Amino acid sequence: MLALPYLETEFTPAQGKYTRWGADSPGHGLSKEALAAEAALAGLQRSNATLTETLMDQAGSDPSALWPFIEAYLSSAHRENRADGCTIASFASDAARQDEQVQASFAQGIDEELDILASSFAKTHAEDQDDLPTSARERAIQLLSELVGAIILARAVAQANRPLSDEILEAVSTGLQTQMKQTTPMNE
Fold this sequence. Notes:
Blueprint: E1 8-12, E2 17-21, E3 28-31, H1 32-57, H2 67-73, H3 76-80, H4 87-95, H5 100-121, H6 126-129, H7 136-157, H8 162-183
Antiparallel strand pairs: 1-2, 2-3
């Protein structure tokens, strides 16, 4: 696990490297790729810790505990808060163009988030699972893909067409709520 409580960087063009210093590593040079890999993993680990905390704070032990997370993720406040928002939504298209080191960090963080989400789906009552077409892991992949896709699309059009942006968030929220009601009672 990386702990980056304090991080500053400075790019040295002649060397083509970033110099990183802070409480955890006093002043050594890292390549741009290594720094990007550390930053991606740290952001994803922070998001995953928040998700875990959110799920632990919710009453109930079934996927309905995910609903507050889903509502917050698909909110206009999250759409507007790019700086502190979802690392996956913010950097996925950039990660696709990065080297294997950055993608490995990104994959690790996404895999951890999928495990967290899948563990929530796995808590569905056994008799309810017989009617489910997919495994807890597959459901987690579907949920994460819908959430990230929705926030990316909503952000992409928010300044030019706010009603369309809102419609995207609302449609995905309504669809997910319907899916979740089919498998578990929602906390009201």
